[in-house]
Design a protein that fits this description.
Length: 283
């Protein structure tokens, strides 16, 4: 089965590099990602653009809009990206730059880091971004749920805020990253109610192979199984890992375990093409 990883990272972020080395045991490099892709039949990765300027760390109020991917000078042919947004940097020049960015073939969406920046999804600051997304027919990906940084503010990343945007912008495709975890039942309602909202299943576990296996032996994922069943439509979900926060192979097995086999082709491949139509050119 061919796989699209709809949520990876490929940027020079200190916390990613530290986690890859000390927690997930991942080779966070071009060589590392190509090896994991080849071993697991991952034909394309969608990277989330994020930039870290010197000294501040992420979330970074000084990061430019749009934010790209910069782990290597050249973007590999089997990686595309969603360009990141810093709401503190959304003047006219930045918005013009954003519009030029989303016209690039490898830019397949726009990423908004709810929780990392203190703005709700429905804040007026993002309205020009949504207009650009609709005009250029690219989806908007929202970080939802827990933030990896202690400097994040959780009330801004609750998935219920996505409902406001989904109702106002019915013609815009939305993907909730991480399914709003740990508020996955709230995320499930937003996905269930709104035909234009999807969710990726990335980042539900951070750590090496044994971490996933040990959690599966407990009832840790009962809340997730409840939410998936509540939604009742597996075609609304996309496979993603949040690499390098976890290795790819055990995460594939984890998602296979919680998604009925009849829906694997959709979750691991087909729905990504529906949500990110520009990726067809790279498959």
């Amino acid at each position: 089965m061919k796989i699209i990883d709809a949520h990876i990272h490929y940027s020079k972020i200190g916390s990613f590099q530290e986690t890859a080395t000390t927690i997930s045991n991942v080779d966070y490099s071009l060589t590392g990602i190509q090896k994991e892709f080849a071993e697991n039949n991952v034909v394309l990765g969608i990277a989330m653009g994020v930039t870290e300027t010197a000294g501040e760390g992420f979330p970074d109020s000084a990061a430019p809009t749009p934010m790209g991917i910069d782990l290597t000078d050249q973007i590999p042919s089997n990686i595309v990206y969603c360009t990141g947004i810093n709401p503190f940097m959304l003047d006219l020049e930045a918005l013009n730059h954003l519009e030029e960015e989303v016209k690039k073939p490898q830019c397949v969406g726009i990423k908004i880091y709810l929780g990392y920046y203190p703005f709700f999804a429905y804040d007026e600051v993002y309205e020009p971004v949504y207009q650009i997304a609709k005009k250029n027919k690219v989806p908007v990906v929202f970080h939802t749920g827990d933030t990896y940084s202690e400097r994040g503010r959780l009330r801004y990343s609750h998935p219920l805020a996505i409902d406001e945007v989904a109702v106002k912008h019915r013609e815009m495709t939305i993907m909730m990253a991480h399914f709003g975890d740990p508020w996955v039942l709230d995320g499930a309602e937003v996905v269930y109610k709104n035909s234009n909202v999807y969710a990726d299943l990335s980042g539900l576990v951070v750590g090496a192979t044994g971490k996933i296996a040990s959690l599966q032996e407990t009832r840790f994922f009962d809340h997730l199984l409840h939410a998936l069943t509540f939604t009742g439509n597996y075609e609304k979900f996309l496979f993603g890992t949040d690499w390098p926060l976890t290795p790819i192979e055990p995460y594939i097995q984890f998602i296979k375990d919680i998604i009925p086999e009849a829906h694997h082709e959709d979750v691991f491949y087909n729905t990504a093409i529906k949500v990110f139509p520009k990726i067809k050119a790279f498959l």
